[in-house]
Amino acid sequence: MSLQNESSSSSLLATKKKRVDLPEGTIAISIGLIIAGLTIYAFFKIGQQALGQDGFKPLVSLWFVMFALAPGFFLPVEQEISRAIAHRRALGQGARPVVRKVLILCSVIVVGLIAAIVALAPFVNDNLFEGHGIVTASLAISIAVYGVFYIVKGLCSGLGKFNSYGFIVGADGAVRVVVCLILLIAGVTQLGPYALVVVLTPLVGVLTILFSGQLK
Fold first, then answer.
1. 5, pLDDT greater than 50
2. Contact indicator for 34, 173 with CB cutoff of 8 Å
3. How far apart are CA 106 and CA 102, in angstroms?
4. For 139, what's the count of Cα atoms within 13 Å in the CB-facing half-sphere?
5. Around Cβ 157, how many Cβ atoms within 10 Å?
6. CB–CB of 189/51 below 8 Å?
7. Cα dihedral sign for 212, 172, 112, 72?
8. End-to-end CA distance of the chain
């Protein structure tokens, strides 16, 4: 009877343990996503306070166009590089051939999209950004920046570096809010600096991960 009770207790503990265990990287990525979500709200509040409702409108347009184009074109790249690298890791093979191919593909996408933005610049500038050329230029810059951003995220997930993945996602929003808050406190009311902050801050997390050697 006691053996049966011990067996039942062991089975119950095993079941509880299975229920508690989370997939690897869940917490790190969740924290990054929560930070990213909260900082979006903070960024919109700071931007409206600094530029006013009307002055902030081109930045809102930039935000929505940027986050329609970047995930639409680069999220599949991230998913493919992650899948391919994870597969090669399981086989004990290096990631370099995959990275080389993805870099070529991503470069073609970036050049094509920037060329399209340049060709359509007069239309985009007048109809989306209320004649603010700096915002149109920022959109073109964002394509190159987010191309790199999604490649590095794919590398992180493919290599199992989920803390780095969460850091990149969270740093994108957190750094943006901090820099915009500094601009607000400094009394900057021009649209250009805020537009450039929106598109350049993803590089902070990316460069931190790359230069810290976490992807080796």
1. no
2. no
3. 6
4. 28
5. 21
6. yes
7. positive
8. 54
Q: Return left, alpha or beta for 48; rule: phi > 0 is left, psi -120 to 50 is alpha, else beta.
A: alpha
From the number of C-beta atoms within 10 Å of its C-beta (0-12, 13-18, 19+), residue 6 rates as exposed
Task: Provide Rg for the chain, Cα atoms.
Answer: 22
Chain segment 95-139, per-residue pLDDT in tens: 788 888 889 999 999 999 999 999 999 999 999 999 999 999 999
From 33-37, 114-118, 144-148, 186-190, the region with the lowest mean pLDDT: 33-37
176/59 Cα distance (integer angstroms): 13
What whole-number distance in Å separates Cα of residue 201 and Cα of residue 84?
A: 28
In the block, which residue shows the tokens 């508690």? 20
Angle value at C-alpha 172, between 169 and 176, nearest 5 degrees:
155
Q: What is the mean pLDDT of residues 196-215?
A: 90
Q: How far apart, in Å, are the Cα atoms of 141 and each of 16, 100, 101, 147, 196?
A: 49, 22, 22, 10, 9
Which residue's structure tokens are 């990631």? 95
Give the Cα separation of 65 and 55 in Å (integer): 17
How far apart, in whole angstroms, are the C-alpha atoms of residue 55 and residue 41?
17
196 contact partners, CB below 8 Å, separation of at least 6: 134, 138, 141
